[in-house]
Amino acid sequence: MHIPSKRVHNEMKAEDGSLWYVPANGGKELALLIKMPTNSIKALISGCSMSLTFGKHDRILCRGVKIQDIPDSSVSISGVQKVLEEHYALIRALKEITLPIFLFNEMDVCLAWTNAKLTSDSNKSLDSIGQPQELYVGQFTDEASHALDCFDFSLDKTRIFQGAHTIPILEIIPTLEEWRVVKNIFIGNHEHHTIDIDEKNEGEIFERIIWATLESVFPLTLYKCPQVKIGKKTRELTDVFSYYTYGSFFIEAKDLSVINAGYSRDIVRCTAGIQKQVKRAICQLIGASKAFLRGETIFDGEGHELSIERNPPPHCIILITELMHYGDWKNIEIELINAMQETGALFHLLDLRELITILKGCSGKAERLDYHLIKRCEMFVKTKSIFIRSRPKSSLHK
Q: CA Rg, the chain, in Å?
Protein backbone atom coordinates (compact mmCIF):
# COMPACT_ATOMS: atom_id res chain seq x y z
CA MET A 1 0.00 0.00 0.00
CA HIS A 2 1.29 3.47 -0.89
CA ILE A 3 0.05 6.73 0.66
CA PRO A 4 0.66 9.63 -1.77
CA SER A 5 2.50 12.73 -0.63
CA LYS A 6 0.49 15.89 0.00
CA ARG A 7 1.51 17.29 -3.40
CA VAL A 8 0.55 14.17 -5.31
CA HIS A 9 -2.66 13.79 -3.33
CA ASN A 10 -3.71 17.35 -4.22
CA GLU A 11 -2.92 16.76 -7.88
CA MET A 12 -4.77 13.46 -7.82
CA LYS A 13 -7.89 15.14 -6.43
CA ALA A 14 -7.78 17.71 -9.23
CA GLU A 15 -7.26 15.26 -12.12
CA ASP A 16 -9.77 12.94 -13.79
CA GLY A 17 -6.87 10.61 -14.53
CA SER A 18 -3.08 10.81 -14.49
CA LEU A 19 0.09 9.03 -13.36
CA TRP A 20 3.04 9.78 -11.13
CA TYR A 21 6.53 8.21 -10.87
CA VAL A 22 7.50 8.93 -7.27
CA PRO A 23 9.98 7.94 -4.56
CA ALA A 24 8.57 5.77 -1.75
CA ASN A 25 9.57 4.83 1.81
CA GLY A 26 11.71 7.89 2.27
CA GLY A 27 13.39 7.46 -1.11
CA LYS A 28 14.50 3.88 -0.51
CA GLU A 29 12.03 2.58 -3.12
CA LEU A 30 10.00 3.78 -6.09
CA ALA A 31 6.33 3.60 -7.08
CA LEU A 32 4.12 4.31 -10.07
CA LEU A 33 0.70 5.69 -9.11
CA ILE A 34 -2.07 5.68 -11.74
CA LYS A 35 -5.52 7.21 -11.39
CA MET A 36 -8.00 5.70 -13.86
CA PRO A 37 -11.69 4.76 -14.28
CA THR A 38 -12.97 1.89 -12.13
CA ASN A 39 -13.87 -0.16 -15.22
CA SER A 40 -10.27 0.06 -16.44
CA ILE A 41 -9.01 -1.13 -13.05
CA LYS A 42 -11.36 -4.13 -13.23
CA ALA A 43 -10.12 -4.93 -16.74
CA LEU A 44 -6.48 -4.75 -15.64
CA ILE A 45 -6.89 -7.07 -12.66
CA SER A 46 -8.79 -9.42 -15.03
CA GLY A 47 -5.73 -9.61 -17.27
CA CYS A 48 -6.00 -6.98 -20.00
CA SER A 49 -2.75 -5.50 -21.31
CA MET A 50 -1.26 -2.13 -20.56
CA SER A 51 1.72 -0.16 -21.80
CA LEU A 52 3.66 2.86 -20.55
CA THR A 53 4.26 5.64 -23.08
CA PHE A 54 6.68 8.55 -23.26
CA GLY A 55 7.28 11.42 -25.65
CA LYS A 56 9.47 14.54 -25.51
CA HIS A 57 8.86 17.87 -27.22
CA ASP A 58 11.99 19.99 -26.81
CA ARG A 59 12.65 19.73 -23.03
CA ILE A 60 9.08 18.91 -22.08
CA LEU A 61 8.50 15.25 -21.16
CA CYS A 62 5.04 13.73 -21.52
CA ARG A 63 4.12 10.35 -20.05
CA GLY A 64 1.09 8.17 -20.27
CA VAL A 65 -0.46 4.73 -19.96
CA LYS A 66 -2.62 2.79 -22.43
CA ILE A 67 -5.11 0.19 -21.17
CA GLN A 68 -6.67 -2.18 -23.69
CA ASP A 69 -9.92 -2.63 -21.75
CA ILE A 70 -12.01 -2.61 -24.95
CA PRO A 71 -10.42 -4.41 -27.94
CA ASP A 72 -11.09 -1.62 -30.46
CA SER A 73 -11.03 1.36 -28.08
CA SER A 74 -8.21 1.54 -25.55
CA VAL A 75 -8.11 4.00 -22.66
CA SER A 76 -5.22 6.45 -22.84
CA ILE A 77 -4.23 8.55 -19.82
CA SER A 78 -1.53 11.15 -20.31
CA GLY A 79 0.01 14.29 -18.90
CA VAL A 80 3.10 16.47 -18.69
CA GLN A 81 5.74 15.48 -16.13
CA LYS A 82 7.01 18.75 -14.68
CA VAL A 83 8.40 17.99 -11.22
CA LEU A 84 12.10 17.27 -10.73
CA GLU A 85 11.40 14.61 -8.10
CA GLU A 86 9.39 12.64 -10.67
CA HIS A 87 12.10 13.01 -13.34
CA TYR A 88 14.64 11.43 -10.99
CA ALA A 89 12.18 8.70 -9.96
CA LEU A 90 11.45 7.79 -13.60
CA ILE A 91 15.13 7.62 -14.61
CA ARG A 92 15.88 5.51 -11.56
CA ALA A 93 12.97 3.17 -12.41
CA LEU A 94 14.30 2.67 -15.94
CA LYS A 95 17.70 1.79 -14.49
CA GLU A 96 16.40 -0.54 -11.77
CA ILE A 97 13.81 -2.07 -14.17
CA THR A 98 11.30 -2.99 -11.42
CA LEU A 99 8.79 -1.00 -9.35
CA PRO A 100 5.31 -1.46 -7.87
CA ILE A 101 2.22 -0.01 -9.58
CA PHE A 102 -0.72 1.26 -7.51
CA LEU A 103 -4.15 1.84 -9.09
CA PHE A 104 -6.44 4.59 -7.77
CA ASN A 105 -10.06 5.06 -8.85
CA GLU A 106 -12.22 8.17 -9.28
CA MET A 107 -12.49 8.50 -5.49
CA ASP A 108 -8.67 8.71 -5.21
CA VAL A 109 -8.77 5.39 -3.35
CA CYS A 110 -6.17 2.68 -4.02
CA LEU A 111 -8.01 -0.47 -5.19
CA ALA A 112 -5.16 -2.72 -6.37
CA TRP A 113 -1.40 -2.99 -6.80
CA THR A 114 1.26 -5.23 -8.29
CA ASN A 115 4.97 -5.41 -9.02
CA ALA A 116 6.07 -4.62 -12.56
CA LYS A 117 9.19 -5.30 -14.57
CA LEU A 118 9.91 -2.71 -17.26
CA THR A 119 10.89 -5.08 -20.08
CA SER A 120 12.63 -2.75 -22.48
CA ASP A 121 16.03 -1.69 -23.79
CA SER A 122 16.95 0.47 -20.79
CA ASN A 123 19.80 2.26 -22.55
CA LYS A 124 17.51 3.21 -25.43
CA SER A 125 14.85 4.41 -22.98
CA LEU A 126 17.34 6.51 -21.03
CA ASP A 127 18.81 8.04 -24.18
CA SER A 128 15.30 8.88 -25.42
CA ILE A 129 14.26 10.65 -22.23
CA GLY A 130 17.55 12.28 -21.29
CA GLN A 131 18.94 13.43 -17.94
CA PRO A 132 16.57 14.69 -15.20
CA GLN A 133 18.25 18.08 -14.91
CA GLU A 134 17.79 18.64 -18.66
CA LEU A 135 14.00 18.17 -18.55
CA TYR A 136 11.45 20.94 -18.09
CA VAL A 137 10.35 21.78 -14.54
CA GLY A 138 7.65 24.34 -13.83
CA GLN A 139 4.02 25.26 -14.42
CA PHE A 140 1.64 23.98 -17.09
CA THR A 141 2.38 26.66 -19.69
CA ASP A 142 1.10 27.10 -23.25
CA GLU A 143 4.26 25.33 -24.42
CA ALA A 144 3.52 22.40 -22.09
CA SER A 145 -0.05 22.25 -23.39
CA HIS A 146 1.22 22.15 -26.98
CA ALA A 147 3.68 19.38 -26.10
CA LEU A 148 0.85 17.34 -24.59
CA ASP A 149 -1.28 17.88 -27.71
CA CYS A 150 1.59 16.60 -29.86
CA PHE A 151 2.03 13.60 -27.56
CA ASP A 152 -1.66 12.66 -27.61
CA PHE A 153 -1.84 13.14 -31.39
CA SER A 154 1.23 10.94 -31.87
CA LEU A 155 -0.43 8.18 -29.82
CA ASP A 156 -3.76 8.44 -31.64
CA LYS A 157 -3.98 10.16 -35.01
CA THR A 158 -7.80 10.29 -34.78
CA ARG A 159 -7.47 12.90 -32.02
CA ILE A 160 -7.03 16.26 -33.73
CA PHE A 161 -5.39 19.19 -31.93
CA GLN A 162 -4.72 22.55 -33.55
CA GLY A 163 -1.05 22.87 -34.50
CA ALA A 164 -0.15 19.41 -33.19
CA HIS A 165 2.44 17.28 -35.00
CA THR A 166 3.97 13.86 -34.42
CA ILE A 167 6.86 13.39 -32.01
CA PRO A 168 8.87 10.21 -31.33
CA ILE A 169 7.08 7.83 -28.95
CA LEU A 170 8.68 5.35 -26.58
CA GLU A 171 6.41 2.50 -25.49
CA ILE A 172 7.22 0.03 -22.71
CA ILE A 173 5.08 -3.05 -22.08
CA PRO A 174 5.73 -4.08 -18.46
CA THR A 175 5.60 -7.65 -17.20
CA LEU A 176 3.12 -7.70 -14.32
CA GLU A 177 2.81 -10.01 -11.36
CA GLU A 178 -0.67 -11.03 -10.21
CA TRP A 179 -2.67 -8.05 -9.02
CA ARG A 180 -3.27 -7.72 -5.27
CA VAL A 181 -6.66 -6.24 -4.39
CA VAL A 182 -6.82 -3.71 -1.55
CA LYS A 183 -9.77 -4.11 0.82
CA ASN A 184 -11.23 -0.70 1.69
CA ILE A 185 -13.76 -0.32 4.53
CA PHE A 186 -15.98 2.79 4.66
CA ILE A 187 -17.78 3.46 7.95
CA GLY A 188 -20.89 5.64 8.25
CA ASN A 189 -23.31 6.48 11.04
CA HIS A 190 -25.87 3.84 10.04
CA GLU A 191 -23.91 1.41 7.89
CA HIS A 192 -20.44 0.30 6.89
CA HIS A 193 -19.39 -1.23 3.58
CA THR A 194 -16.33 -3.06 2.29
CA ILE A 195 -15.11 -2.55 -1.27
CA ASP A 196 -13.14 -5.37 -2.93
CA ILE A 197 -12.89 -4.50 -6.61
CA ASP A 198 -12.51 -8.15 -7.68
CA GLU A 199 -15.78 -9.35 -6.11
CA LYS A 200 -18.07 -11.20 -8.52
CA ASN A 201 -21.15 -9.17 -7.58
CA GLU A 202 -20.02 -6.07 -9.45
CA GLY A 203 -23.36 -4.28 -9.17
CA GLU A 204 -23.29 -4.57 -5.39
CA ILE A 205 -19.72 -3.23 -5.22
CA PHE A 206 -20.68 -0.27 -7.43
CA GLU A 207 -23.58 0.54 -5.08
CA ARG A 208 -21.15 0.48 -2.14
CA ILE A 209 -18.77 2.83 -3.97
CA ILE A 210 -21.62 5.27 -4.56
CA TRP A 211 -22.67 5.06 -0.92
CA ALA A 212 -19.08 5.80 0.13
CA THR A 213 -18.86 8.88 -2.13
CA LEU A 214 -22.00 10.40 -0.60
CA GLU A 215 -21.42 9.54 3.06
CA SER A 216 -19.60 12.81 3.86
CA VAL A 217 -22.44 14.89 2.39
CA PHE A 218 -25.27 12.94 4.05
CA PRO A 219 -23.77 11.54 7.28
CA LEU A 220 -27.18 10.97 8.92
CA THR A 221 -29.56 10.56 5.96
CA LEU A 222 -27.88 8.16 3.54
CA TYR A 223 -29.35 4.70 2.92
CA LYS A 224 -28.46 1.78 0.71
CA CYS A 225 -31.42 -0.23 -0.64
CA PRO A 226 -34.26 1.51 1.28
CA GLN A 227 -37.72 -0.08 1.08
CA VAL A 228 -41.11 1.37 0.11
CA LYS A 229 -44.49 0.02 1.12
CA ILE A 230 -47.13 0.11 -1.61
CA GLY A 231 -50.42 -1.37 -0.44
CA LYS A 232 -49.53 -4.51 1.47
CA LYS A 233 -46.28 -5.15 -0.40
CA THR A 234 -42.83 -3.87 0.49
CA ARG A 235 -40.10 -3.69 -2.13
CA GLU A 236 -36.80 -1.92 -2.80
CA LEU A 237 -37.26 1.77 -3.56
CA THR A 238 -33.88 2.42 -5.18
CA ASP A 239 -30.21 1.43 -4.89
CA VAL A 240 -29.04 4.46 -2.89
CA PHE A 241 -31.24 7.15 -1.31
CA SER A 242 -30.37 10.35 0.53
CA TYR A 243 -32.16 13.50 1.58
CA TYR A 244 -31.94 16.75 3.49
CA THR A 245 -34.46 19.45 4.41
CA TYR A 246 -34.87 20.83 0.90
CA GLY A 247 -34.29 17.89 -1.41
CA SER A 248 -34.17 14.14 -2.01
CA PHE A 249 -31.86 12.06 -4.19
CA PHE A 250 -32.60 8.68 -5.78
CA ILE A 251 -29.72 6.80 -7.40
CA GLU A 252 -29.95 3.75 -9.63
CA ALA A 253 -26.49 2.23 -10.14
CA LYS A 254 -25.80 0.42 -13.40
CA ASP A 255 -22.41 -1.23 -13.76
CA LEU A 256 -21.16 -2.93 -16.94
CA SER A 257 -19.77 -6.31 -15.92
CA VAL A 258 -16.04 -6.80 -16.46
CA ILE A 259 -14.95 -9.33 -13.81
CA ASN A 260 -17.65 -11.81 -14.89
CA ALA A 261 -18.09 -10.96 -18.58
CA GLY A 262 -14.47 -10.18 -19.42
CA TYR A 263 -13.07 -7.36 -21.54
CA SER A 264 -13.45 -8.86 -25.02
CA ARG A 265 -16.61 -6.95 -26.03
CA ASP A 266 -16.06 -4.31 -28.70
CA ILE A 267 -17.17 -0.70 -28.36
CA VAL A 268 -20.50 -1.34 -30.12
CA ARG A 269 -21.51 -4.10 -27.70
CA CYS A 270 -20.32 -2.18 -24.66
CA THR A 271 -22.31 0.90 -25.65
CA ALA A 272 -25.43 -1.15 -26.40
CA GLY A 273 -25.15 -2.86 -23.00
CA ILE A 274 -24.85 0.44 -21.16
CA GLN A 275 -27.78 2.00 -23.01
CA LYS A 276 -29.97 -1.01 -22.23
CA GLN A 277 -29.22 -0.63 -18.53
CA VAL A 278 -29.81 3.13 -18.62
CA LYS A 279 -33.28 2.63 -20.12
CA ARG A 280 -34.11 0.13 -17.40
CA ALA A 281 -32.93 2.58 -14.72
CA ILE A 282 -35.13 5.36 -16.14
CA CYS A 283 -38.18 3.10 -15.81
CA GLN A 284 -37.21 2.14 -12.25
CA LEU A 285 -36.75 5.78 -11.23
CA ILE A 286 -40.07 6.81 -12.76
CA GLY A 287 -41.77 4.26 -10.50
CA ALA A 288 -39.70 5.27 -7.46
CA SER A 289 -40.33 9.00 -7.88
CA LYS A 290 -44.09 8.47 -8.33
CA ALA A 291 -44.26 6.38 -5.15
CA PHE A 292 -42.27 9.05 -3.32
CA LEU A 293 -44.49 11.90 -4.50
CA ARG A 294 -47.66 9.94 -3.64
CA GLY A 295 -46.44 9.80 -0.07
CA GLU A 296 -45.84 6.06 0.20
CA THR A 297 -44.10 4.98 3.41
CA ILE A 298 -40.32 4.57 3.09
CA PHE A 299 -38.14 2.50 5.45
CA ASP A 300 -34.42 2.10 5.91
CA GLY A 301 -32.76 -1.31 5.67
CA GLU A 302 -33.65 -2.13 9.28
CA GLY A 303 -37.35 -1.36 8.88
CA HIS A 304 -37.39 2.11 10.49
CA GLU A 305 -39.72 4.60 8.83
CA LEU A 306 -38.04 7.68 7.35
CA SER A 307 -39.54 11.12 7.86
CA ILE A 308 -38.91 12.99 4.60
CA GLU A 309 -40.05 16.34 3.19
CA ARG A 310 -41.89 15.49 -0.06
CA ASN A 311 -42.53 18.91 -1.58
CA PRO A 312 -39.36 19.62 -3.62
CA PRO A 313 -39.16 17.50 -6.80
CA PRO A 314 -36.61 14.72 -6.18
CA HIS A 315 -33.40 14.24 -8.14
CA CYS A 316 -33.42 10.92 -10.00
CA ILE A 317 -29.87 9.94 -10.93
CA ILE A 318 -28.87 7.11 -13.26
CA LEU A 319 -25.24 6.48 -12.36
CA ILE A 320 -23.00 4.42 -14.63
CA THR A 321 -19.31 3.64 -14.30
CA GLU A 322 -18.29 5.41 -17.50
CA LEU A 323 -20.17 7.49 -20.08
CA MET A 324 -18.90 6.69 -23.57
CA HIS A 325 -19.11 9.19 -26.41
CA TYR A 326 -19.48 6.42 -28.95
CA GLY A 327 -22.87 5.70 -30.52
CA ASP A 328 -26.23 7.46 -30.80
CA TRP A 329 -27.68 8.54 -27.43
CA LYS A 330 -30.59 10.56 -28.82
CA ASN A 331 -33.26 8.05 -27.68
CA ILE A 332 -31.82 8.12 -24.16
CA GLU A 333 -31.93 11.92 -24.12
CA ILE A 334 -35.58 11.86 -25.26
CA GLU A 335 -36.49 9.31 -22.56
CA LEU A 336 -34.91 11.50 -19.86
CA ILE A 337 -36.94 14.51 -21.02
CA ASN A 338 -40.13 12.43 -21.15
CA ALA A 339 -39.48 11.08 -17.64
CA MET A 340 -39.21 14.62 -16.26
CA GLN A 341 -42.43 15.65 -17.98
CA GLU A 342 -44.23 12.55 -16.69
CA THR A 343 -43.12 12.80 -13.05
CA GLY A 344 -42.06 16.38 -12.39
CA ALA A 345 -38.79 15.01 -10.97
CA LEU A 346 -35.34 16.02 -12.22
CA PHE A 347 -33.59 13.24 -14.14
CA HIS A 348 -29.82 13.01 -14.60
CA LEU A 349 -27.46 10.60 -16.36
CA LEU A 350 -24.00 10.73 -14.78
CA ASP A 351 -20.95 8.55 -14.58
CA LEU A 352 -18.88 8.11 -11.43
CA ARG A 353 -16.25 10.59 -12.59
CA GLU A 354 -18.88 13.33 -13.05
CA LEU A 355 -20.59 12.67 -9.72
CA ILE A 356 -17.30 12.92 -7.82
CA THR A 357 -16.33 16.11 -9.66
CA ILE A 358 -19.64 17.66 -8.58
CA LEU A 359 -19.21 16.44 -5.00
CA LYS A 360 -15.72 17.96 -4.81
CA GLY A 361 -17.29 21.34 -5.50
CA CYS A 362 -19.89 20.92 -2.74
CA SER A 363 -17.58 21.09 0.30
CA GLY A 364 -19.70 18.44 2.01
CA LYS A 365 -22.89 20.56 1.80
CA ALA A 366 -26.09 18.95 0.52
CA GLU A 367 -27.58 22.27 -0.60
CA ARG A 368 -24.63 22.81 -2.95
CA LEU A 369 -25.12 19.35 -4.47
CA ASP A 370 -28.80 20.20 -4.92
CA TYR A 371 -27.92 23.50 -6.60
CA HIS A 372 -25.28 22.03 -8.92
CA LEU A 373 -27.63 19.27 -10.06
CA ILE A 374 -30.41 21.78 -10.75
CA LYS A 375 -28.08 23.94 -12.86
CA ARG A 376 -26.75 20.87 -14.64
CA CYS A 377 -30.30 19.73 -15.42
CA GLU A 378 -31.09 23.17 -16.82
CA MET A 379 -28.06 22.83 -19.11
CA PHE A 380 -29.25 19.38 -20.23
CA VAL A 381 -32.74 20.69 -21.06
CA LYS A 382 -31.20 23.58 -23.00
CA THR A 383 -28.69 21.53 -25.01
CA LYS A 384 -30.60 18.20 -25.15
CA SER A 385 -27.23 16.51 -24.68
CA ILE A 386 -26.09 14.15 -21.93
CA PHE A 387 -22.45 14.95 -22.64
CA ILE A 388 -21.93 17.63 -20.00
CA ARG A 389 -18.77 17.75 -17.91
CA SER A 390 -18.40 19.79 -14.74
CA ARG A 391 -15.03 21.35 -14.00
CA PRO A 392 -13.80 22.58 -10.61
CA LYS A 393 -13.27 26.35 -10.64
CA SER A 394 -9.70 26.07 -9.35
CA SER A 395 -8.60 22.79 -10.93
CA LEU A 396 -4.91 22.08 -11.38
CA HIS A 397 -3.48 21.57 -14.86
CA LYS A 398 -1.88 18.34 -16.07
A: 22
What's the pLDDT tens digit per position in 1-21? 688 899 999 999 988 899 999
Backbone φ and ψ for 24, nearest 5 degrees, come out as -135, 160
pTM: 0.90
Within 8 A by CB and 6+ apart from 111, the residues are 38, 41, 103, 104, 105, 181, 182, 184, 195, 197
Q: CA torsion angle for 302, 308, 310, 313 (degrees, to 10)? A: -80
CA dist., res. 135 & res. 65, Å (int): 20
Q: What φ, ψ does residue 388 adopt, rounded to 5°?
A: -120, 130
pLDDT tens track for 179-227? 999 999 998 877 888 999 988 888 899 999 999 999 989 999 999 999 9
Q: Based on the number of CB atoms within 10 Å of its own CB, is 102 exposed (0-12), middle (13-18) or buried (19 or more)?
A: buried
Residues in a beta bridge with 66: 51, 76
